[in-house]
Amino acid sequence: MKKESFIVRRNFLKIAGLTAVLGPSLSFSSRQSIDNYGFRNNELQDINFKPVNVSPDRVIRTVVGLRPYRQSGFVLKSERLNDKTIIHNYGHGGAGMSLSWGTAKLAVDMALQRGETSFAVLGCGVIGLSTARLLQQKGFDVTIYAKDLPLNTTSNVSGALWGSGNFFVYNENQVGHEFLSQFDQATTISYRAFQDFVGINYGVSWIKHYNLGGFFNFAGSKIFYPGFKELQTSITDYSTIQQYNVMLIEPAIYLNALMNDFYVAGGSLKVRQFNSTQDLISLHENVIMNCTGMGSQKLFNDKELTPVKGQMSVLLPQSEINYSYVSPSSNNLLYMIPRKDGILLGGNAIAGDWSLEANDQENKRILDGHMKIAKTLGS
After folding, report:
1. Closest-CA residue to 231 (of 208, 204, 259)
2. Over the stretch 122-139, which tens digit does the pLDDT of each residue have?
3. Whether 316 contacts 60, CB under 8 Å
4. Which sign does the torsion angle of CA 144, 147, 148, 153 carry?
């Protein structure tokens, strides 16, 4: 498969995005730019940023993940396999964490039409866990079948910043009204659902986010951008900065909490790898929720599904950093996300690359870029 380097800014502008998802809640025919809401502030603002201490000797790990991307967007549909019903819920690109409760709800609604009381869920990432929990909340028996457990899934290495957009969810030229309507529904459901998880038990919190350079043209409802302001500043290189609040999700805490909820509700987990759809026929459950992400390429022969490789450097935690940012750079976008387990520095996106090995040149590019930003913000 051919590797292709993406110009990330172009894709951000197309789908309003960075690392999670901030999708539109309006109907397709009534989408509009947030610029129409009158949130601009043309007065010169002084913002006192506490700079991130970016240095190679502060890097504690480098993480790599593969975003399951489809140009036509995620798959949310039902199909028959012999006497089984397969409900597909995969292909969320870089928005799996943030779309999780929304697409899980839509998938579960499809599953309930079958009149079954026990369900199989394939995959134990955030999509699989969310789907399983919603089925349990309906009073059903659920078994998760997975090759990898939460700490080894793609979900665990996601940036997981809900509210500043997404990496690669769909190509706007490849989707129509029906998909965008699903996308709107899923976004709205997830946005509300995650607010109920805010707190230390689930590792979800609100932080202030900045678009350095103010270049995003957001689409959708202003409810997803609480506290939005567009500021004019005296900061070199960033005369315009967009500021608003986002939900930050700590994957290690959040996924473990969902897993615990699943077990407390009586769920069963079986470590198992499926090599073909024929392997699924032996399951005793008649309804199978497919949440396998990239695994669906082989298991269900989805040739459109392709990995978009992402790489992040993680610095030692810095407790005084209480904001996140995204900034344009010459060949990509750079983003910083502070978490309890370390400060995440990204980002990149390479389509068609299945390698989970870190690239040293990308490490250097990411660190050098964030060093420059830290110097600019601290001056």
Report:
1. 208
2. 999 999 999 999 999 999
3. yes
4. negative
CA distance 286 to 113: 12
The candidate with the shortest Cα–Cα distance to 6, out of 350, 356, 366, 352, is 350
The predicted pLDDT at position 46 comes to 62
Can you give the pTM of this predicted structure?
A: 0.88
Instruction: Check residue 255 and give left, alpha or beta (phi > 0: left; psi -120 to 50: alpha).
Output: alpha
User: Tens of pLDDT along 181-212?
Assistant: 999 899 999 999 999 999 999 999 999 999 99
State the Cα–Cα distance between residues 314 and 295, nearest whole angstrom: 27
Q: Which residues are CB-neighbours of 211 under 8 A, at least 6 positions away?
A: 164, 241, 242, 243, 325, 326, 327
Phi–psi pair at 31, nearest 5 degrees: -65, 145
Residue 12 in this model has a pLDDT that exceeds 60: no
Q: How far apart are CA 18 and CA 349, in angstroms?
A: 11
